[in-house]
Amino acid sequence: MARVVDSIEIRRPVGQVFAYVTDVKNFPKWIPDMVEAVQVSPGKIGVGTALRGTYKMMGLRMAWTSKITEYESNRKFGEKIVSGRMLNDELMTFDSTAAGTKFTFMCEMKVGGFLKVLSPIMASTLRKQTKTDLAKLKELLES
């Protein structure tokens, strides 16, 4: 298991950052390796909502399904990947700052099967990709 934690300050109010980040259709816009992401359960997004998508890492396309585990408007958004090659627990937090919003992404990556042998490389790749994703998010929201 690997843990990845990274933060970035975005010059936008918390409400705007939270709304953008938690809108599933925006996932591929700020996470370049996210091929697709959709909400599969009806209604407003919240705890228990199911999501599905496809992610690309190290040349592999990985389908995933997740459940929202934490949802506190303008504060927290957590999800657990419940099916796929990587069973991640993710938590995103949003804190108001003088300049805008401090956005923090935390991920506990768990891999199984034949990918377990690649887990150190995958963890390193995820750390680098997280930095790229956060920079892309900042660019999109500040432009």
Can you walk me through this structure?
- This protein has 143 residues and is of the alpha+beta class.
- The chain has a single domain, classed as START domain (Alpha-D-Glucose-1,6-Bisphosphate, Chain A, domain 4, 2-Layer Sandwich), CATH 3.30.530.20.
- The chain contains three helices and seven strands; from the N terminus they run βααββββββα.
- A seven-stranded antiparallel β-sheet has the order 1-7-6-5-4-3-2.
- Strand 6 and strand 7 form a beta hairpin.
- The longest helix has 24 residues.
- The protein is globular, with a radius of gyration of 15 Å.
Provide the number of structural domains: 1
Helix amount: 25-40%
Average the pLDDT over all residues and give the rounded result. 90
Rg, Cα atoms, Å:
15 Å
Oligomer: single chain
N→C terminal distance: 36 Å
- Uncertain runs with pLDDT below 50, 5 residues or more? none
Based on helices, strands and strand pairing, what is the structural class?
alpha+beta
Q: What's the CATH topology label?
A: Alpha-D-Glucose-1,6-Bisphosphate, Chain A, domain 4
Q: List how many beta strands DSSP finds.
A: 7
State the shape.
globular
Strand content: 35-45%
Summarize the structure.
The chain has a single domain (2-142), classed as Alpha-D-Glucose-1,6-Bisphosphate, Chain A, domain 4 (2-Layer Sandwich). Helix content is 25%, strand content 43%.
Keywords, separated by commas or semicolons:
3 helices; 7 strands; alpha+beta; 143 residues; single chain; Alpha-D-Glucose-1,6-Bisphosphate, Chain A, domain 4
